[in-house]
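Researcher: Structure for this, please.
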Amino acid sequence: MNAKQLICLVGLFATVPAAYAQTGLPDSIKVPDGHKVAMETTGVGEITYECRDKANAAGQTEWTFVGPKAVLNDRSGKQVGTYFGPPATWQARDGSKVTGTQLAVAPSSPGNLPYQLVKANPAEGKGAMSGVSYIQRVALKGGVAPGTECTTANKGKQEVVKYQADYIFWSAS
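Model: Predicted structure, C-alpha cell format:
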C-alpha cells in the first residue's frame, strides 16, 4: 500500500462514526463497563399526557405521562422497530422485544425530556432485541409535558406532544 492509498483509507475511517461514545453524558446514565453497542436508533413520535389529580395533593392537578408511541429508525432512516407503552416496550421489526426498569434519569437541555438509563428485561422472541442488557435515551428533542394549563376544569383532557430521541441498545461484551 502506498502513502496515497493509506491516506485515503485513513480518511475513509475518519468519516465512519465510532462506536457510541458516552463521554459528555451524566455519570448516572452511563452504561457499566463490559457492554457494547448492539444497535443505535432514533425514535420519532409522540408522548401523550393527561390532566389528572396530583398524587397526595387534594384539589391540585398536573399533566401526567400516559405513554409513548414512536417509530425507531436506524442511522440511515430505515424503520427497524417501534417504541410504545405502558409498559415501555421496544420492539424490532423481526418481532423480538424488550421491556425494562428505569435505573436513572438526568436533566438534558431545557424543553426536552431527561436522559434515561433502562435495565432491559430478557428479550421476548429471537432477533435484534436478543441479548440487549441496557437502553439509553439520549439526543433529546421535545417531549416534555404541555405548557397549557391543567386545572380541575380540564381534568381528563389529553394532549399529545411530539418528540425525538436516540435509543442506544447495549449488550454484554
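Researcher: Any notable elements?
Model: The two ends are 33 Å apart (CA to CA). The first helix runs from residue 3 to 15.
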